Amino acid sequence: MTAVRVRGAFPAEAAILAEMANDLNDHVGIHGRLFTPERVLADGFGPAAAFTPLVAELDGAVVGYAFFSAGYNTDVAARSIFLHDLFVTAAARGRGVGSALMAAVAAETVRAGCVSLEWGVHTANAGALEFYRRLGAVAAEVRIMSVSGERLRALADAVSIPRR
Ligand SMILES: CC(C)(COP(=O)(O)OP(=O)(O)OC[C@H]1O[C@@H](n2cnc3c(N)ncnc32)[C@H](O)[C@@H]1OP(=O)(O)O)[C@@H](O)C(=O)NCCC(=O)NCCS
Hints:
Layout: E1 4-8, H1 14-27, H2 37-44, E2 52-58, E3 61-73, E4 78-88, H3 97-111, E5 116-119, H4 126-134, H5 149-158
Parallel strand pairs: 4-5
Antiparallel strand pairs: 1-2, 2-3, 3-4
Bound molecules: coenzyme A.
Coenzyme A is lined by residues 24, 27, 86-88, 93-99, 121, 125, 127-128, 130-131, 134.
């Protein structure tokens, strides 16, 4: 009988979190392995953290993680949680680890008084789409847009917003 346990990640786990976050990016076709332990430590821990990291253990070994942060659902005028990443190492899949991570993030969503849990998924990620469908999630008819790098800078330079 295998035992799955989900808990908050420790700063000492920054290296394994970076490894898994890079593996997830590779899985969805984003190459470059940009996550480093230092990046995870700076962005996932401490008072200025941009996301909260959870890890899942299977029989005591870390085999998955989730990153989430506070969001806002303007459709219902209420606070929400945004799930950035969900990942289970290939050898540990199909044993309830992903479901346990989602349950933990959902519990955190409810505990924080939020009304919904949202996330993005690559449309080509058929396995994840089926996994989420089985959990009872529905796809919103929206597209996530993104601007970065030079285009972001050009956009930022195009207007000046008076400061109050
Ligand atoms: C998607 C992922 C998190 C699922 O984790 P997991 O630990 O394998 O999932 P579970 O064992 O909890 O499976 C829960 C249910 O989903 C189903 N499921 C899981 N992965 C599936 C897949 N690829 N295709 C079809 N069904 C799947 C399981 O069969 C199970 O169904 P059941 O409840 O009817 O038995 C994991 O496969 C993964 O990390 N994939 C690569 C990264 C990724 O795509 N992450 C999501 C980014 S948005």
